[in-house]
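Re: folding output
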Amino acid sequence: MLLRPATSPAFSLLAAGDTTSIRLFPATYRNSTGIVVVKAAAKSSSSANSKPLTGVIFEPFEEVKKELSMVPNVPQISLARQKYADECESAINEQINVEYNVSYVYHAMFAYFDRDNVALKGLAKFFKESSEEEREHAEKLMEYQNKRGGKVKLQSILMPLSEFDHAEKGDALYAMELALSLEKLTNEKLLNLHHVAEKNKDVQLQEFVEGEFLSEQVEAIKKISEYVAQLRRVGKGHGVWHFDQMLLHEGAAA
C-alpha cells in the first residue's frame, strides 16, 4: 500500500548559477516482507529535471537485522563488544602488566630513598608519584578494556630490586638512569600496542593510545633525560643533596 508522501521536502539542491531547484519528496510503502521502505522521487520546476531520481533507498530495518542477530544472549559474553579483535584485547592486557611492573619498580625506589640512612626525600617523593602515575595508567587501560567488551586478565608482577646504590654512579644517578630506561621501554610497548591496533584496523584504539599515553610518554622521557644530565654534572657529593631539594620543592614552587 502506497502511503501519502510527506509535505516537507527531505532536502533541496540548487545548482550553481541556476535558479532551478530539485526537491526530493520521500515516499514510504511496505514491501512484500512488511518492511517499511523509503524512496525519494524528484520534483522539478524544469522539464529537464522532470525524470524521477532512482537508486535512493533507505532500509534501516533490513540493515540492522545482521547486528540484531549478533546480540549475545549468554550472560558471560559482553554486549558492548564490536569490532574488537582478540589480538587487541591481549595487547591491552600485556600493557596493563607492563604498567604495573614499572609502578612496582618505582615503588621500590621510593622505599629505598625514604630510608633513614639514605634520606633523599625529594627522590623518594618523585618515585612515589611516578609509581602512582603508572598505576593510574594501568587502571585507565583496565577501564578501556571493559569499555570495549574485553576481559582484564592480570598477570604476575616480577620482584624488583631493593638496592640502588652504585659504586661509580651513586644511587641517585643510577636510579634516574634506570627510570629513563623504564620510560623508554614503556613507550616502546605503547608503540607496539598502537601497531597492533593499526594492523587490526581499530581506529578507536589507535586514538586512545595516541591521546592518553604517547604525548605524555615523550614528555616524561625528556624530563628524566634532563635529570640524568644534571646528576651527571653534580657528581655524587653535595650536589645530589641540592638536586634532591629541587625535586622535594618542585611541586610547591609550581
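--- second protein (sequence, then structure) ---
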Amino acid sequence: MRTFSLHGTSIFELSTNSHDRNFKSSFYGSNKHPFARASSSLIFKSCHFSVRCAVSFRPCIDIHKGKVKQIVGSTLRDSKEDGSTLVTNFESDKSAAEFAKLYKKDGLKGGHVIMLGADPLSQEAAIEALHAYPGGLQVGGGINLDNCLSYIEEGASHVIVTSYVFNNGQMDLQRLKGLVHVVGKQRLVLDLSCRKKEDKYAIVTDRWQKFSDVYLDVEVLHFLANYADEFLVHGVDVEGKKLGIDKDLVALLGEHSPIPVTYAGGVTLMDDLETIKEAGKGHVDVTVGSALDIFGGNLAYGDVVAWHDNNRRGHKRDL
C-alpha cells in the first residue's frame, strides 16, 4: 500500500498519534490533494470535543501600516503589478490600543487583532493592543514558527495562522505540528477563510489571493480540530462589502465544526446576527467589521454588545 507524500515526507513519518492514523485513509489513492474524502466514521472516532452553545460577538482590530482600518479583503495585494488598488472602507484616528481598551471595558474576549501586512508599524500597533488587553485578544498576520511564541509572550491569548500552514496551495502538516509543539494546541487558531470554487469552499491564503487545494468539509474540519483550539473563517467573497452574510457557509460551520468557530463577512444588520445564530445552530460566533458605527458603518456597536450580553445571559439561564 502506498502513502501520499506531503512536501516529500511520508504520511507515516508525519503520523505520530491515533488522530493521524485514523485520517490516513484519506491520503491513499488520491492524486488530487491530501484531503480526498475519507470515511467519516474513522474521523469522528478520533474527535471528542465540546462546543459552546452561546453565540458571542468577537470584536476585531484590523491594522494596515500601523493604522486601524476596514478594507475589502479581496483587494489586498503584495504588489500593484495587476493594476488593482486597495479598497479602504474606513480608517480610524484611534489607535489599536484604544480599541483594545474599549473591548476590555465591555468584557469582550477572543477578539482578533489582524496585521494586514508585516511592516514594523503594524507589528508595533498590534503589540500595543495586546499590552492594553493582555489575554483578551488573538493575533494574526504573518505568524510563523519563528515569531509565534513572541506574540503569546506579549499578551496574545492565541495566534492565528493561515498561509504558514497552507503553503504553496497545499497543507503543510509538518509546519502545523511545529506550531502546536511550540505554542500548544490550546493557543492556536487556524484561519480557514475561504472562497467559492466550483460550488465548494476552498481555503485561500496569501492575503486571500491564492486558492489552496483544501476544501472545507466535515472531514477537513474534524481533522484540523485535532491541531487547533478554534477556527476563524472569513467568507471572503462577501467580506468587507456589507452585502449580507454567506448563510450556506455559516450552516456548514455550525453543522460540522467540532471546536469553537468564528464567522466573519457581510454582516450589515442586526438581523444578520440572528441569522448566523440560527443557521449556525448556536455554535458559530461572529465578527463584525465595516458595518459597525465605530468603523464608519451604520450598525451601532452598543447594540451588538447588548446582543452579545443577552446571548450570554440566556445561555447561563439555560445551564
